[in-house]
Design goal:
Elements (H helix, E strand, L loop, with lengths): L3 E8 L3 H12 L4 E4 L4 H5 L25 H5 L10 H15 L8 E7 L2 E6 L4 E9 L11 H4 L6 E2 L14 E5 L3 H12 L3 E5 L22 E2 L2 E2 L1 H8 L9 H10 L18 E2 L3 E8 L2 E7 L5 E6 L1 E4 L15 H6 L2 E2 L2 E2 L12 E3 L5 H4 L9 H15 L15
Parallel strand pairs: 1-2, 1-5, 5-18, 6-15, 7-8, 7-15, 8-11
Antiparallel strand pairs: 3-4, 4-5, 9-10, 12-13, 13-14, 16-17
Helix pairs in contact: 1-11
The chain binds flavin-adenine dinucleotide.
The site of flavin-adenine dinucleotide has 28 residues, from helix 1 and helix 2.
Length: 403
């Protein structure tokens, strides 16, 4: 027996969950959305951060005009970086206007039952849902290289663990990585009074160019993922990605928007030591510090000692890490390389179980890693659910158990 019944339950209230719920509501589908709006952006991104995405690529998916970033800020020009706080406020504004019924709880379990799913909430309530949309975001997929995995949290962490980098003031911090997260973490650490040192495998840091809205046939059109004809296709027509061979899709996800710093970050790193061409070979704790041994391309071995190491080494989708899905679901749902295999409507091999955001990247390409993909994903999911999950009888709820 369950406590309540709903057509669709959306797990997570980040950009994707909010967009999906808004589109489902727009289609008149009875929906519940569980999660604190924009929680990951509030709790797991560093204070002082700026978005790398341009304003035109930073809108949540709205079923009607009026829900875009530009509607919230009005006239934020391209090339002006968006502060984290502004984007957070926009996300909450979107939630208040389009999905005010978002429930600030957690989903603790999703199990299959009959023709649908039983979802357990942190309040103890059990809900029967015909369809479940998993929009759990990137936080659970933080990737830590094996060499660092055994270290205690005082010595090594992933950027996801830090809202306030000021706690490292006065300390030596090794930042591993060469992407925006590594470079911005290093800049924010230096500005907070810490002594960061960047360690990167690459032999040259890459920097994104200052955005330029001019038309150029040679360089190709501008899109949410950057310049170029192919980039435009992956960004603006993600449905085409699904028709490509799996190997090509994997390559596109890996290589579109490779690690690079935003143009506005470069100057801020001028005084931060950066050691390039360094492969981490061994990591150990010694006398309360972390000792990192590296080898360069010529085989030269070096050691870096720090009070703490931050591994800004990204996020890797692995459905096995989505602990709220029952072991039976994780065992039976079709996956490839850790991603669920999705149909044209973002539905997995288990009818009624949908995935949005990073987990959809192997099917729909790199734009699913960014806010820009949320409108496409949400519209597709809502259309698919409205079409393929017409009201069917659901398990009966005993009157005394209704909340
Ligand atoms: C440092 C950093 C900077 C970034 N900058 C940009 C940028 O500039 N532009 C851009 O487009 N993208 C950026 N991204 C990528 C960004 O994370 C995604 O674009 C965006 O957050 C995807 O939205 P989402 O809803 O899938 O995920 P999230 O924003 O992670 O939201 C998922 C939500 O689900 C919640 N949740 C998870 N499990 C449960 C559960 N069991 N019950 C209830 N709630 C749950 C989480 O708490 C979270 O709030 C950045 C990522 C990082 C880490």
């Amino acid at each position: 027996m369950v406590d309540s019944v709903v057509d669709v339950l959306v797990v997570g209230a980040g950009p994707y969950g909010l967009s999906v719920a808004a589109h489902l509501k727009g289609r008149g589908v009875q929906t519940r959305i569980i999660g604190v709006p924009m929680r990951f952006w509030q709790e797991n991104m560093p204070e002082g951060m700026f978005l790398k995405s341009e304003p035109f690529a930073s809108s949540l998916g709205s079923p009607r005009p009026g829900g875009g970033f530009d509607d919230y800020t009005s006239g934020w020009r391209a090339g002006r970086p968006i502060p984290l706080g502004t984007f957070l406020a926009y996300g909450r504004w979107f939630a208040d206007r389009l999905v005010p019924e978002t429930e600030p709880d957690r989903v603790t379990a999703v199990e299959r039952s009959g023709t649908g799913y039983t979802v357990t909430l942190s309040t103890g309530e059990t809900v029967a849902a015909r369809a479940v949309v998993m929009a759990v975001g990137v936080g659970g997929f933080a990737h830590v290289p094996d060499e660092f995995a055994g270290l205690p949290a005082e010595l090594a962490s992933h950027p996801v663990a830090h809202r306030d980098l000021g706690r490292f003031a006065g300390q030596d911090v090794a930042v591993v990585g060469a992407g925006q997260s590594a470079l911005e973490t290093a800049a924010l650490l230096a500005e907070s009074g810490a002594y960061p040192c960047v360690l990167a495998r690459t032999t040259r840091l890459a920097w994104n160019a200052v955005p330029d809205a001019s038309l150029s046939l040679v360089r190709g059109p501008r899109s949410g993922l950057g310049r170029g004809w192919r980039t435009w296709l992956w960004s603006e027509r993600p449905s085409t990605v699904r028709f490509l061979p799996e190997r090509t899709r994997r390559r596109i996800v890996r290589t579109t928007m490779p690690p690079a710093g935003a143009w506005w970050l470069r100057e801020r790193l001028a005084d931060v030591p950066v050691r390039l061409g360094q492969h981490v070979t061994e990591v150990a704790a010694h006398a309360g510090r972390v000792v990192i041994q590296t080898r360069d391309h010529e085989g030269q071995v070096s050691r870096v000692e720090a009070d703490h190491a931050i591994t800004a080494t990204g996020y890797v989708c692995d459905l096995d890490r989505v602990g709220v899905l029952s072991p039976e679901i994780r065992r039976t749902v079709h996956t490839r390389h850790g991603y669920p295999v999705l149909d044209a409507g973002f539905q997995s091999s288990l009818p009624g179980l949908y995935f949005a955001g990073l987990t959809a990247a192997l099917s729909f390409g790199p734009v699913m890693r960014f806010v820009h993909g949320s409108d496409f994903a949400a519209a597709r999911i809502a259309t698919h659910i409205a079409r393929t999950n017409p009201s069917r009888p659901m398990p009966r709820v005993p009157a005394q158990a209704r909340p």
